[in-house]
Amino acid sequence: MKRHRPSSSSDSSDNESPSTSFSSSYKYGGKVGTPVSQPKKPAEVFRKDLISAMKLPDSHHINPEEYYLLADTWKQEWEKGVQVPASPDSLLQPSLRVIAEKPKESLFVRQRKYIQCSSQEPVEAGYVNIVELAESMCRYDLDDMDLFWLQELNAELEELGCSLLDEFTMEKAMEALEKQCHESMNHAIETEEGLGIEYDEDVICDVCRSPDSEEGNDMVFCDQCNICVHQACYGILKVPHGSWLCRTCVLAIHPQCVLCPQRGGAMKATRAGTKWAHVSCALWIPEVSIACPERMEPITKVSHIPPSRWALVCSLCKLKTGACIQCSVKSCITAFHVTCAFQHSLEMKTILDEGDEVKFKSYCLKHSKPTAGEPRPKPATETEKTSLRAQKLLALEEQFYTLVRSEDLACQLGLPEHVLDFVYQYWKLKRKSNFNKALLPPKEGEENVLLQPREDSIHTRMRMFMHLRQDLERVPSTVSGLLTNYTDTFSIGLQSLPCRKYVQ
Length: 504
Description:
Elements: E1 20-22, E2 45-47, H1 49-54, H2 75-78, E3 82-84, H3 130-136, H4 144-160, H5 167-191, E4 219-221, E5 228-230, H6 231-234, H7 247-250, E6 267-269, E7 276-278, H8 279-284, E8 289-292, E9 297-300, H9 307-310, E10 325-326, E11 335-336, H10 338-343, E12 348-352, E13 358-362, H11 382-398, H12 406-413, H13 417-433, H14 443-496
Antiparallel strand pairs: 1-2, 2-3, 4-5, 6-7, 8-9, 10-11, 12-13
Helix pairs in contact: 5-13, 12-13
Protein backbone atom coordinates (compact mmCIF):
# COMPACT_ATOMS: atom_id res chain seq x y z
CA MET A 1 0.00 0.00 0.00
CA LYS A 2 1.48 3.31 -1.03
CA ARG A 3 1.23 6.15 1.46
CA HIS A 4 2.41 9.77 1.46
CA ARG A 5 3.78 10.72 4.87
CA PRO A 6 4.29 14.29 5.99
CA SER A 7 7.74 15.17 7.24
CA SER A 8 8.01 15.06 11.03
CA SER A 9 10.72 14.64 13.56
CA SER A 10 9.36 11.31 14.71
CA ASP A 11 9.58 9.75 11.21
CA SER A 12 12.52 7.78 10.07
CA SER A 13 13.56 6.20 6.81
CA ASP A 14 11.92 3.13 5.39
CA ASN A 15 14.80 0.92 6.42
CA GLU A 16 15.18 2.15 9.96
CA SER A 17 15.94 -0.22 12.77
CA PRO A 18 13.27 -1.29 15.22
CA SER A 19 12.65 1.45 17.71
CA THR A 20 10.28 2.14 20.52
CA SER A 21 8.98 5.59 21.43
CA PHE A 22 7.79 6.45 24.91
CA SER A 23 5.36 9.24 25.60
CA SER A 24 5.95 11.65 28.47
CA SER A 25 4.24 10.91 31.69
CA TYR A 26 3.14 14.50 32.31
CA LYS A 27 0.71 14.13 29.50
CA TYR A 28 -1.29 11.82 31.70
CA GLY A 29 -1.49 13.86 34.86
CA GLY A 30 2.19 14.09 35.91
CA LYS A 31 3.57 17.21 37.64
CA VAL A 32 5.44 19.81 35.66
CA GLY A 33 8.39 20.09 38.06
CA THR A 34 9.22 16.41 38.12
CA PRO A 35 12.73 15.71 36.77
CA VAL A 36 12.85 13.69 33.59
CA SER A 37 15.72 11.58 34.84
CA GLN A 38 13.55 9.84 37.38
CA PRO A 39 12.46 6.40 36.20
CA LYS A 40 8.81 6.46 35.40
CA LYS A 41 6.62 3.70 34.16
CA PRO A 42 5.68 4.54 30.59
CA ALA A 43 1.97 5.03 29.96
CA GLU A 44 2.02 4.13 26.27
CA VAL A 45 4.51 2.21 24.20
CA PHE A 46 4.50 2.24 20.38
CA ARG A 47 6.49 0.07 18.00
CA LYS A 48 7.25 1.69 14.64
CA ASP A 49 9.10 -1.21 13.12
CA LEU A 50 5.83 -3.03 12.53
CA ILE A 51 4.59 -0.08 10.50
CA SER A 52 7.85 0.15 8.58
CA ALA A 53 7.60 -3.53 7.63
CA MET A 54 4.24 -2.87 6.07
CA LYS A 55 5.43 0.08 3.98
CA LEU A 56 6.80 -0.01 0.49
CA PRO A 57 9.50 2.36 -0.82
CA ASP A 58 8.43 5.22 -3.02
CA SER A 59 10.40 3.79 -5.92
CA HIS A 60 8.28 0.65 -5.95
CA HIS A 61 5.91 0.65 -8.88
CA ILE A 62 2.30 -0.24 -8.09
CA ASN A 63 -0.60 -0.36 -10.50
CA PRO A 64 -3.58 1.84 -9.62
CA GLU A 65 -5.72 -1.28 -9.22
CA GLU A 66 -3.46 -2.62 -6.46
CA TYR A 67 -3.74 0.12 -3.83
CA TYR A 68 -6.21 2.53 -2.24
CA LEU A 69 -5.67 6.19 -1.35
CA LEU A 70 -6.50 6.82 2.32
CA ALA A 71 -7.62 10.32 3.24
CA ASP A 72 -9.01 9.70 6.73
CA THR A 73 -8.20 11.80 9.78
CA TRP A 74 -6.72 8.88 11.70
CA LYS A 75 -3.78 8.60 9.30
CA GLN A 76 -1.51 10.80 11.41
CA GLU A 77 -2.22 8.76 14.54
CA TRP A 78 -1.57 5.57 12.62
CA GLU A 79 1.92 6.80 11.68
CA LYS A 80 2.94 6.86 15.35
CA GLY A 81 3.20 3.11 15.46
CA VAL A 82 1.44 0.11 16.88
CA GLN A 83 0.56 0.15 20.55
CA VAL A 84 2.09 -2.76 22.48
CA PRO A 85 2.16 -3.72 26.17
CA ALA A 86 4.71 -1.72 28.17
CA SER A 87 5.94 -4.66 30.21
CA PRO A 88 4.78 -8.03 28.80
CA ASP A 89 6.54 -9.93 31.57
CA SER A 90 4.33 -8.33 34.20
CA LEU A 91 1.13 -9.72 32.66
CA LEU A 92 -0.61 -12.37 34.67
CA GLN A 93 -0.50 -15.86 33.29
CA PRO A 94 -3.79 -17.75 33.16
CA SER A 95 -4.09 -20.69 35.50
CA LEU A 96 -6.55 -23.53 35.06
CA ARG A 97 -7.62 -26.37 37.25
CA VAL A 98 -10.06 -29.16 36.58
CA ILE A 99 -12.97 -29.40 38.97
CA ALA A 100 -14.23 -32.92 39.40
CA GLU A 101 -17.97 -33.41 38.96
CA LYS A 102 -19.85 -34.03 42.11
CA PRO A 103 -21.44 -37.46 42.18
CA LYS A 104 -25.20 -37.37 42.01
CA GLU A 105 -26.84 -38.12 45.26
CA SER A 106 -28.84 -41.30 45.11
CA LEU A 107 -32.34 -40.34 46.11
CA PHE A 108 -34.82 -42.78 47.52
CA VAL A 109 -36.82 -44.43 44.75
CA ARG A 110 -40.11 -45.96 45.75
CA GLN A 111 -41.21 -49.16 44.16
CA ARG A 112 -44.18 -49.07 41.83
CA LYS A 113 -46.01 -51.88 43.55
CA TYR A 114 -46.32 -49.77 46.70
CA ILE A 115 -47.80 -46.79 44.85
CA GLN A 116 -51.53 -46.33 44.53
CA CYS A 117 -52.70 -43.25 42.65
CA SER A 118 -56.25 -42.25 41.82
CA SER A 119 -55.21 -40.58 38.56
CA GLN A 120 -52.55 -41.48 36.04
CA GLU A 121 -49.22 -39.85 36.85
CA PRO A 122 -47.49 -37.88 34.13
CA VAL A 123 -44.49 -39.43 32.48
CA GLU A 124 -42.27 -36.52 33.44
CA ALA A 125 -42.64 -33.26 35.28
CA GLY A 126 -44.62 -30.69 33.32
CA TYR A 127 -45.92 -33.25 30.80
CA VAL A 128 -49.46 -32.63 29.56
CA ASN A 129 -51.35 -35.06 27.34
CA ILE A 130 -53.00 -32.84 24.75
CA VAL A 131 -55.42 -35.56 23.60
CA GLU A 132 -56.71 -36.24 27.11
CA LEU A 133 -56.90 -32.52 27.79
CA ALA A 134 -58.93 -31.95 24.62
CA GLU A 135 -61.31 -34.80 25.44
CA SER A 136 -61.87 -33.47 28.96
CA MET A 137 -62.82 -30.03 27.64
CA CYS A 138 -66.52 -29.30 27.25
CA ARG A 139 -67.54 -28.75 23.63
CA TYR A 140 -70.73 -26.84 24.40
CA ASP A 141 -70.59 -23.10 25.12
CA LEU A 142 -73.48 -21.22 26.71
CA ASP A 143 -74.94 -18.40 24.63
CA ASP A 144 -76.87 -15.35 25.85
CA MET A 145 -80.16 -17.23 25.91
CA ASP A 146 -78.63 -20.02 28.01
CA LEU A 147 -77.18 -17.54 30.49
CA PHE A 148 -80.50 -15.73 30.88
CA TRP A 149 -82.35 -19.03 31.39
CA LEU A 150 -79.72 -20.19 33.92
CA GLN A 151 -80.15 -16.96 35.86
CA GLU A 152 -83.91 -17.49 36.04
CA LEU A 153 -83.43 -21.15 37.04
CA ASN A 154 -81.04 -20.25 39.88
CA ALA A 155 -83.51 -17.66 41.16
CA GLU A 156 -86.23 -20.31 41.28
CA LEU A 157 -83.91 -22.89 42.87
CA GLU A 158 -82.94 -20.34 45.50
CA GLU A 159 -86.59 -19.82 46.41
CA LEU A 160 -87.01 -23.60 46.71
CA GLY A 161 -83.94 -23.82 48.94
CA CYS A 162 -81.98 -26.02 46.52
CA SER A 163 -78.37 -25.77 45.47
CA LEU A 164 -77.65 -23.52 42.52
CA LEU A 165 -76.48 -24.68 39.11
CA ASP A 166 -73.23 -23.19 37.80
CA GLU A 167 -72.36 -22.53 34.17
CA PHE A 168 -69.80 -25.34 33.79
CA THR A 169 -72.21 -27.97 35.11
CA MET A 170 -74.91 -26.80 32.72
CA GLU A 171 -72.49 -27.03 29.81
CA LYS A 172 -71.60 -30.58 30.83
CA ALA A 173 -75.30 -31.49 31.08
CA MET A 174 -76.10 -30.08 27.63
CA GLU A 175 -73.13 -31.93 26.13
CA ALA A 176 -74.18 -35.20 27.79
CA LEU A 177 -77.74 -34.83 26.42
CA GLU A 178 -76.46 -34.20 22.91
CA LYS A 179 -74.02 -37.12 23.08
CA GLN A 180 -76.60 -39.64 24.30
CA CYS A 181 -79.12 -38.47 21.70
CA HIS A 182 -76.56 -38.80 18.90
CA GLU A 183 -75.48 -42.31 19.95
CA SER A 184 -79.07 -43.53 20.36
CA MET A 185 -80.05 -42.14 16.96
CA ASN A 186 -77.10 -43.85 15.25
CA HIS A 187 -78.05 -47.13 16.91
CA ALA A 188 -81.64 -46.76 15.73
CA ILE A 189 -80.51 -46.03 12.17
CA GLU A 190 -78.36 -49.17 12.13
CA THR A 191 -80.97 -51.49 13.62
CA GLU A 192 -84.38 -50.33 12.44
CA GLU A 193 -85.67 -51.74 9.17
CA GLY A 194 -85.61 -49.36 6.24
CA LEU A 195 -82.98 -47.05 7.76
CA GLY A 196 -79.76 -49.04 7.62
CA ILE A 197 -78.59 -50.97 4.59
CA GLU A 198 -76.97 -53.65 6.76
CA TYR A 199 -80.36 -54.91 7.91
CA ASP A 200 -82.18 -54.54 4.59
CA GLU A 201 -83.33 -57.98 3.45
CA ASP A 202 -83.76 -56.77 -0.14
CA VAL A 203 -80.04 -56.05 -0.61
CA ILE A 204 -78.75 -58.10 -3.52
CA CYS A 205 -75.59 -58.26 -5.58
CA ASP A 206 -75.61 -55.76 -8.43
CA VAL A 207 -74.10 -58.33 -10.81
CA CYS A 208 -75.73 -61.71 -10.10
CA ARG A 209 -78.84 -60.33 -8.30
CA SER A 210 -78.44 -62.89 -5.49
CA PRO A 211 -78.91 -61.90 -1.83
CA ASP A 212 -76.89 -64.85 -0.50
CA SER A 213 -73.21 -64.90 0.37
CA GLU A 214 -70.82 -67.59 1.47
CA GLU A 215 -67.43 -67.86 3.11
CA GLY A 216 -64.74 -66.49 0.83
CA ASN A 217 -67.33 -64.73 -1.32
CA ASP A 218 -68.62 -61.97 0.92
CA MET A 219 -70.77 -59.05 -0.13
CA VAL A 220 -68.91 -55.74 -0.25
CA PHE A 221 -70.46 -52.27 -0.24
CA CYS A 222 -68.98 -49.20 -1.90
CA ASP A 223 -68.63 -46.43 0.66
CA GLN A 224 -69.56 -43.74 -1.86
CA CYS A 225 -72.23 -45.00 -4.28
CA ASN A 226 -73.41 -47.78 -1.90
CA ILE A 227 -73.59 -50.56 -4.50
CA CYS A 228 -73.34 -54.14 -3.25
CA VAL A 229 -71.33 -56.82 -5.06
CA HIS A 230 -69.90 -60.25 -4.35
CA GLN A 231 -66.16 -60.65 -4.30
CA ALA A 232 -66.21 -63.08 -7.21
CA CYS A 233 -68.74 -61.04 -9.20
CA TYR A 234 -66.62 -57.87 -9.16
CA GLY A 235 -63.13 -59.41 -8.95
CA ILE A 236 -62.24 -58.42 -5.38
CA LEU A 237 -59.43 -60.78 -4.45
CA LYS A 238 -59.25 -59.66 -0.81
CA VAL A 239 -61.80 -57.81 1.29
CA PRO A 240 -60.24 -54.52 2.46
CA HIS A 241 -60.17 -53.73 6.17
CA GLY A 242 -61.13 -50.09 5.79
CA SER A 243 -63.26 -48.31 3.25
CA TRP A 244 -63.70 -49.68 -0.26
CA LEU A 245 -64.63 -47.85 -3.47
CA CYS A 246 -65.70 -49.27 -6.81
CA ARG A 247 -63.78 -48.45 -9.98
CA THR A 248 -65.92 -45.48 -11.02
CA CYS A 249 -65.89 -43.94 -7.53
CA VAL A 250 -62.11 -44.27 -7.37
CA LEU A 251 -61.84 -42.16 -10.51
CA ALA A 252 -64.69 -39.85 -9.38
CA ILE A 253 -66.61 -40.32 -12.64
CA HIS A 254 -70.20 -41.21 -13.48
CA PRO A 255 -70.00 -42.77 -16.95
CA GLN A 256 -72.78 -44.26 -19.05
CA CYS A 257 -72.72 -47.91 -19.93
CA VAL A 258 -71.84 -48.59 -23.56
CA LEU A 259 -74.21 -51.58 -23.61
CA CYS A 260 -77.30 -50.01 -21.98
CA PRO A 261 -78.73 -46.54 -21.25
CA GLN A 262 -78.21 -46.81 -17.46
CA ARG A 263 -75.60 -44.98 -15.39
CA GLY A 264 -74.09 -46.14 -12.13
CA GLY A 265 -73.86 -49.64 -10.75
CA ALA A 266 -71.07 -52.23 -10.86
CA MET A 267 -69.10 -51.12 -13.91
CA LYS A 268 -65.69 -51.95 -15.37
CA ALA A 269 -63.69 -50.29 -18.13
CA THR A 270 -62.97 -51.66 -21.55
CA ARG A 271 -59.45 -52.44 -22.69
CA ALA A 272 -58.99 -48.95 -24.11
CA GLY A 273 -60.07 -47.42 -20.81
CA THR A 274 -62.29 -44.80 -22.45
CA LYS A 275 -65.58 -46.72 -22.33
CA TRP A 276 -67.36 -48.39 -19.43
CA ALA A 277 -69.92 -51.16 -19.18
CA HIS A 278 -71.82 -53.01 -16.47
CA VAL A 279 -70.35 -56.34 -15.49
CA SER A 280 -73.84 -57.86 -15.74
CA CYS A 281 -74.24 -56.57 -19.31
CA ALA A 282 -70.88 -58.07 -20.26
CA LEU A 283 -71.88 -61.43 -18.79
CA TRP A 284 -75.32 -61.68 -20.44
CA ILE A 285 -74.45 -60.43 -23.93
CA PRO A 286 -72.98 -63.47 -25.76
CA GLU A 287 -70.41 -61.70 -27.93
CA VAL A 288 -68.81 -59.73 -25.07
CA SER A 289 -66.22 -61.34 -22.81
CA ILE A 290 -63.99 -60.45 -19.84
CA ALA A 291 -60.21 -60.74 -20.26
CA CYS A 292 -59.33 -61.71 -16.65
CA PRO A 293 -62.11 -63.68 -14.92
CA GLU A 294 -60.39 -63.42 -11.53
CA ARG A 295 -60.36 -59.64 -11.55
CA MET A 296 -63.40 -59.35 -13.82
CA GLU A 297 -61.70 -56.76 -16.02
CA PRO A 298 -61.20 -55.44 -18.61
CA ILE A 299 -64.32 -55.89 -20.74
CA THR A 300 -63.35 -56.96 -24.26
CA LYS A 301 -64.83 -57.86 -27.65
CA VAL A 302 -67.45 -55.12 -27.61
CA SER A 303 -66.68 -54.59 -31.30
CA HIS A 304 -67.74 -58.21 -32.00
CA ILE A 305 -71.39 -57.36 -31.33
CA PRO A 306 -73.22 -57.58 -34.67
CA PRO A 307 -75.11 -54.56 -36.02
CA SER A 308 -78.39 -56.47 -35.73
CA ARG A 309 -78.05 -56.50 -31.94
CA TRP A 310 -77.28 -52.79 -31.83
CA ALA A 311 -80.44 -52.16 -33.88
CA LEU A 312 -82.78 -53.85 -31.38
CA VAL A 313 -85.22 -51.67 -29.43
CA CYS A 314 -85.79 -52.42 -25.74
CA SER A 315 -89.39 -53.46 -25.03
CA LEU A 316 -89.20 -52.08 -21.48
CA CYS A 317 -87.58 -48.65 -21.79
CA LYS A 318 -88.44 -48.18 -25.51
CA LEU A 319 -84.92 -46.94 -26.26
CA LYS A 320 -82.60 -47.94 -29.06
CA THR A 321 -79.46 -47.35 -27.03
CA GLY A 322 -76.81 -49.98 -26.42
CA ALA A 323 -77.12 -53.69 -27.14
CA CYS A 324 -80.17 -55.76 -26.17
CA ILE A 325 -80.65 -59.45 -25.49
CA GLN A 326 -83.70 -61.46 -26.52
CA CYS A 327 -86.03 -63.90 -24.83
CA SER A 328 -84.65 -67.45 -24.60
CA VAL A 329 -87.94 -68.92 -25.87
CA LYS A 330 -87.28 -69.88 -29.48
CA SER A 331 -90.56 -68.50 -30.80
CA CYS A 332 -90.15 -65.16 -28.97
CA ILE A 333 -88.01 -62.34 -30.28
CA THR A 334 -88.74 -59.74 -27.56
CA ALA A 335 -85.65 -57.63 -26.87
CA PHE A 336 -84.68 -55.86 -23.67
CA HIS A 337 -81.60 -54.48 -21.95
CA VAL A 338 -79.97 -56.52 -19.21
CA THR A 339 -80.32 -53.76 -16.62
CA CYS A 340 -83.94 -53.11 -17.63
CA ALA A 341 -84.69 -56.80 -17.14
CA PHE A 342 -83.23 -56.67 -13.62
CA GLN A 343 -85.20 -53.53 -12.76
CA HIS A 344 -88.51 -55.12 -13.89
CA SER A 345 -87.71 -58.41 -12.09
CA LEU A 346 -87.73 -60.56 -15.21
CA GLU A 347 -86.68 -64.18 -14.94
CA MET A 348 -82.89 -64.41 -15.48
CA LYS A 349 -81.32 -67.83 -14.93
CA THR A 350 -77.73 -69.08 -14.89
CA ILE A 351 -77.48 -72.83 -15.60
CA LEU A 352 -74.37 -74.96 -15.11
CA ASP A 353 -74.34 -77.83 -17.61
CA GLU A 354 -72.43 -81.10 -17.47
CA GLY A 355 -69.30 -79.66 -19.03
CA ASP A 356 -69.02 -76.99 -16.28
CA GLU A 357 -70.12 -74.41 -18.79
CA VAL A 358 -72.37 -71.59 -17.60
CA LYS A 359 -75.40 -70.82 -19.76
CA PHE A 360 -77.49 -67.69 -19.37
CA LYS A 361 -81.26 -67.90 -19.86
CA SER A 362 -83.37 -64.75 -19.98
CA TYR A 363 -87.12 -64.48 -20.41
CA CYS A 364 -89.34 -61.59 -21.36
CA LEU A 365 -92.19 -60.21 -19.31
CA LYS A 366 -94.65 -62.60 -20.95
CA HIS A 367 -92.65 -65.79 -20.42
CA SER A 368 -91.28 -64.98 -16.95
CA LYS A 369 -92.84 -67.16 -14.25
CA PRO A 370 -94.17 -65.28 -11.19
CA THR A 371 -93.36 -66.75 -7.78
CA ALA A 372 -96.00 -69.09 -6.28
CA GLY A 373 -98.55 -68.18 -8.94
CA GLU A 374 -99.00 -64.64 -7.59
CA PRO A 375 -99.01 -61.61 -9.84
CA ARG A 376 -95.61 -59.98 -10.12
CA PRO A 377 -95.40 -56.91 -7.87
CA LYS A 378 -94.02 -53.75 -9.30
CA PRO A 379 -90.54 -53.24 -7.92
CA ALA A 380 -89.87 -50.10 -5.91
CA THR A 381 -87.59 -47.64 -7.64
CA GLU A 382 -84.54 -46.10 -6.06
CA THR A 383 -86.34 -42.78 -5.75
CA GLU A 384 -89.19 -44.39 -3.78
CA LYS A 385 -86.74 -46.17 -1.46
CA THR A 386 -84.84 -42.95 -0.83
CA SER A 387 -88.05 -41.04 -0.17
CA LEU A 388 -89.29 -43.69 2.27
CA ARG A 389 -86.00 -43.67 4.16
CA ALA A 390 -86.03 -39.87 4.37
CA GLN A 391 -89.54 -39.95 5.85
CA LYS A 392 -88.46 -42.45 8.50
CA LEU A 393 -85.42 -40.37 9.37
CA LEU A 394 -87.58 -37.24 9.67
CA ALA A 395 -89.97 -39.04 12.02
CA LEU A 396 -87.02 -40.25 14.10
CA GLU A 397 -85.59 -36.74 14.35
CA GLU A 398 -88.95 -35.35 15.49
CA GLN A 399 -88.99 -37.86 18.36
CA PHE A 400 -85.37 -37.18 19.35
CA TYR A 401 -86.21 -36.54 23.02
CA THR A 402 -87.45 -40.11 23.44
CA LEU A 403 -83.91 -41.37 22.78
CA VAL A 404 -82.55 -39.79 26.00
CA ARG A 405 -82.90 -41.19 29.53
CA SER A 406 -82.53 -38.33 31.98
CA GLU A 407 -82.34 -40.64 35.02
CA ASP A 408 -79.12 -42.23 33.80
CA LEU A 409 -77.59 -38.86 32.99
CA ALA A 410 -78.49 -37.48 36.44
CA CYS A 411 -76.67 -40.40 38.07
CA GLN A 412 -73.71 -40.01 35.70
CA LEU A 413 -73.31 -36.27 36.28
CA GLY A 414 -74.10 -36.40 40.02
CA LEU A 415 -77.01 -33.96 39.78
CA PRO A 416 -80.42 -34.17 41.41
CA GLU A 417 -83.06 -35.54 39.08
CA HIS A 418 -85.29 -32.48 39.36
CA VAL A 419 -82.40 -30.15 38.43
CA LEU A 420 -81.47 -32.26 35.41
CA ASP A 421 -85.14 -32.44 34.44
CA PHE A 422 -85.15 -28.61 34.20
CA VAL A 423 -82.12 -28.75 31.90
CA TYR A 424 -83.68 -31.59 29.89
CA GLN A 425 -86.89 -29.65 29.25
CA TYR A 426 -84.90 -26.56 28.25
CA TRP A 427 -82.70 -28.64 25.92
CA LYS A 428 -85.78 -30.16 24.28
CA LEU A 429 -87.35 -26.77 23.63
CA LYS A 430 -84.12 -25.28 22.29
CA ARG A 431 -83.55 -28.19 19.93
CA LYS A 432 -87.14 -27.97 18.62
CA SER A 433 -86.61 -24.29 17.93
CA ASN A 434 -83.56 -25.35 15.89
CA PHE A 435 -85.79 -27.53 13.64
CA ASN A 436 -84.85 -30.69 15.56
CA LYS A 437 -81.21 -30.35 14.52
CA ALA A 438 -78.29 -31.13 16.79
CA LEU A 439 -76.89 -28.28 18.86
CA LEU A 440 -73.38 -29.78 18.63
CA PRO A 441 -71.69 -31.18 15.52
CA PRO A 442 -70.76 -34.85 15.98
CA LYS A 443 -67.12 -35.70 16.63
CA GLU A 444 -67.11 -38.00 13.63
CA GLY A 445 -67.66 -35.00 11.39
CA GLU A 446 -64.63 -33.23 12.87
CA GLU A 447 -62.49 -36.33 12.35
CA ASN A 448 -63.70 -36.66 8.75
CA VAL A 449 -62.59 -33.09 8.07
CA LEU A 450 -59.07 -34.03 9.20
CA LEU A 451 -59.08 -37.27 7.21
CA GLN A 452 -60.51 -35.77 4.01
CA PRO A 453 -57.19 -34.49 2.62
CA ARG A 454 -55.64 -37.91 3.17
CA GLU A 455 -58.53 -39.67 1.41
CA ASP A 456 -58.35 -37.18 -1.47
CA SER A 457 -54.63 -37.92 -1.90
CA ILE A 458 -55.31 -41.66 -1.90
CA HIS A 459 -58.03 -41.24 -4.55
CA THR A 460 -55.67 -39.12 -6.66
CA ARG A 461 -52.96 -41.77 -6.51
CA MET A 462 -55.40 -44.55 -7.39
CA ARG A 463 -56.69 -42.51 -10.33
CA MET A 464 -53.13 -41.97 -11.51
CA PHE A 465 -52.35 -45.70 -11.27
CA MET A 466 -55.53 -46.52 -13.22
CA HIS A 467 -54.52 -44.18 -16.05
CA LEU A 468 -50.99 -45.60 -16.01
CA ARG A 469 -52.32 -49.13 -16.26
CA GLN A 470 -54.57 -48.19 -19.18
CA ASP A 471 -51.62 -46.57 -20.97
CA LEU A 472 -49.49 -49.68 -20.45
CA GLU A 473 -52.27 -51.88 -21.81
CA ARG A 474 -52.45 -49.71 -24.95
CA VAL A 475 -48.69 -49.96 -25.60
CA PRO A 476 -48.65 -53.41 -27.32
CA SER A 477 -51.48 -52.53 -29.70
CA THR A 478 -49.88 -49.17 -30.50
CA VAL A 479 -46.48 -50.73 -31.18
CA SER A 480 -47.99 -53.45 -33.39
CA GLY A 481 -49.95 -50.81 -35.31
CA LEU A 482 -46.80 -48.74 -35.86
CA LEU A 483 -44.88 -51.80 -37.08
CA THR A 484 -47.70 -52.70 -39.47
CA ASN A 485 -47.80 -49.18 -40.90
CA TYR A 486 -44.01 -49.13 -41.22
CA THR A 487 -44.01 -52.48 -43.04
CA ASP A 488 -46.73 -51.36 -45.45
CA THR A 489 -44.91 -48.11 -46.18
CA PHE A 490 -41.64 -49.92 -46.73
CA SER A 491 -43.22 -52.41 -49.17
CA ILE A 492 -44.93 -49.60 -51.10
CA GLY A 493 -41.63 -47.77 -51.32
CA LEU A 494 -39.90 -50.82 -52.71
CA GLN A 495 -42.60 -51.25 -55.35
CA SER A 496 -42.31 -47.63 -56.44
CA LEU A 497 -38.55 -47.86 -57.10
CA PRO A 498 -37.59 -47.86 -60.83
CA CYS A 499 -36.37 -51.22 -62.15
CA ARG A 500 -33.38 -51.29 -64.45
CA LYS A 501 -32.34 -54.17 -66.67
CA TYR A 502 -28.64 -54.72 -67.14
CA VAL A 503 -27.40 -56.50 -70.26
CA GLN A 504 -24.13 -58.32 -70.04
